[in-house]
Amino acid sequence: MKIVYLPCIYRNTDIQKPDYLATVDVNPQSPNFCKVIHRLPMPNLKDELHHSGWNACSSCYDDPSKRRNRLILPSLISSRIYVVDVGTDPRAPRLHKVHLIEPIDLFWKCGLANPHTSHCLGSGQIMISTMGDPSGNGKGGFVLLDGETFEVIGNWEQPGEAAPFGYDFWYQPRHNVMISTEWGAPKALGNGFNPADVRAGHYGQRLHVWDWTTHKRIQILDLGEEGAIPLEIRFLHNPAAAEGFVGCALQSTVFRFYKTPKGNWAAEKVIHIPGKKVKGWALPEMPGLITDILISLDDRFLYFSNWLHGDIRQYDITDRRNPRMVGQVFLAGSILKDGPVKVLEDKELDSQPAPRIIKGKRVQGGPQMLQLSLDGKRLYVTTSLYSAWDKQFYPDLVKEGSVMMQIDVDTDKGGLKLNENFLVDFGAEPDGPALAHELRYPGGDCTSDIWL
Hints:
It is a single chain. Helix content is 7%, strand content 38%. It is mainly β. Strands 29, 30, 31, 32 and 33 form a 5-stranded antiparallel sheet that branches. A 4-stranded antiparallel sheet has the order 3-2-1-34, with no helix packed on it. It has a 4-stranded antiparallel sheet with strand order 4-5-6-7. The chain is built from 5 helices and 34 strands. It has a single domain, classed as Methylamine Dehydrogenase, Chain H (7 Propeller).
């Protein structure tokens, strides 16, 4: 692995420039190591590029004509979907000639908006989950794209079957199942987070279980308040496995979901990060805010980021019901000892962590998006969550730009250590500080590939 792709966002900053796809050199032998070597700007402003996906992945293993040569870039706020050619010149991506799916295609053909997660299917089609309807209300449906022409085919879900909220999804065909999660209504979260919106029911707390063959919603798992705002969902990579994990942001919990002996699905809380009593912050108690999770390719370790507390954790999940923390590293966050927040009561730490300074740059924000190398030894992390929430919780992150860091992983006994020689500083971008988000490897990675 020599390069990675990251969407970089200018929405909600003072810079009136389009979001762009950055190509970063991560080859230690390269003279451009840790540098952005190419930038592909989008043709519009304020898209809010967020997560990306491939036109082909392991699900297309039996089709020799399929190549992982197009990156699908949905825009969370504008509802545009871009198609990027990364095959012609992987180090200098360009917009594919059929490069843009306009919001009106999603609105009129599917009644959906705010696309989020993109996965390729074994059929050759591409499926993208959505968070809303064209008016900004919550609506968890799925858009199907043709894998060759990239035209909108229509909805994956049956008429009337869309969930009240949407966000992420993962499918496991051997068990004829897909499970999707809920963030919240786009018009509630679009300009920031208000706890009153949670009480008003504008955020989700359920998992939706879908029949993979009939496209019908067959079960709803209500995780309760402890499972409020379930974001990233990951089945184990083993295609025969009938279980996985989901990170729930608001109460900082991880739930294990699994198939029961009766053949239906259930969920149980297996990790909880206690909140910290604080003063000098918006609320008297600060949650960790688990935002991203991933599972190593060998299904041995679970990783997640606490965006507010500022740490990344590694858990041994060989005992699936009893994850055991084996690694932790602090990388900034909201409880730094030289910051405005004073921790009054902490069930985990004896003292507030020190700020992180790498190559002279102070890390702003907190660890957020994660991506793990295929051998499990390098964990890459960026610090931007979503521009409106960045602006609200970490205004200095918006002013100074996000960073990409590398954590060295002990894959034997467990353990995490910051690599002090690695830093990609998106505060030094030519058009001004940018907010870099999700990472993708050209050859596939721990969150893009689903095996059949």
